[in-house]
Amino acid sequence: MPSTQTTPALPRTPAPGLQGPWRRVLYVTLYELIAIGVAAYGLAVLTGQGAAHSSVASVVASAIAVLWNVVFNWAFERWESRQAVRGRSVRRRIAHAIGFECGLVFTLVPLFAWWFNVRLRDAFVMDLALIVFFLCYTFVFNGVFDRVFGLPASALPAAA
Questions:
Q1: What is the C-alpha end-to-end distance of the chain, expressed in Å?
Q2: Residue 91 CB coordination number (10 Å)
Q3: pLDDT value for 17
Q4: Angle of the 120-149 helix axis to the 20-47 helix axis, nearest 10
Q5: How far apart are CA 141 and CA 93, in angstroms?
Q6: How many CB atoms neighbour CB 134 within 10 A?
Q7: Is pLDDT above 50 for 7?
């Protein structure tokens, strides 16, 4: 007959979060791998063009997004580190997601207009579904990423 005794759980001390360049590399890699798959599928459905054609646009958009991600997050974390209130509230996460996505709109809509041979207005309408998806995706991904890997140093409470 098996023993019914259980070993008491050891207290968990939170591990320090992943910091520095490795945090950014892991963040961008995970984010973009998921994004490429979803965007390729979404663009193929929205445009009625083949998956191969849409996948090329998705990979190029991903490369642009990676560069923008590095620049935007560097600037955001620099701004964030100078704020009196630390942490990442829902409001700050929303501002982060909107700021990031707005920067992409200015580059990706013209790219999609050219690649899919449509007017800018049509590319924006086509991209609207992706914009809404990515606003939600960015918000959720950042929350999950921070929960799994810890907050970046810029969002940690100041040491006493």
A1: 53
A2: 8
A3: 66
A4: 140
A5: 11
A6: 24
A7: no
Domain limits, the chain: 20-150
CA-based R_g, the chain, Å: 20
Which three-class secondary structure state does DSSP give residue 7?
Answer: coil
Close Cβ partners of 13 (under 8 Å, ≥ 6 residues apart): none
Q: How far apart are CA 146 and CA 19, in angstroms?
A: 11
Alpha helices for 4-155 (secondary structure H): 20-47, 51-81, 90-115, 120-149
Question: Could you tell me which of 38, 61, 57 has the C-alpha nearest to residue 129?
Answer: 38
Structure-token pair, residue 123: 């590319």
Taking the model in full, what pTM does it have?
Answer: 0.64
- Contact assessment for residue 15 and residue 150, using Cβ atoms and an 8 Å cutoff: yes
In angstroms, rounded to a whole number, what is the distance separating the alpha carbons of residues 60 and 43? Answer: 13
CB 130 within 8 A of CB 44: no
Cα 81 from Cα 87, distance rounded (Å): 10
Average pLDDT over the chain reads: 82
Tokens standing for residue 53: 């054609």
Structure-block tokens of residue 55: 């996948």
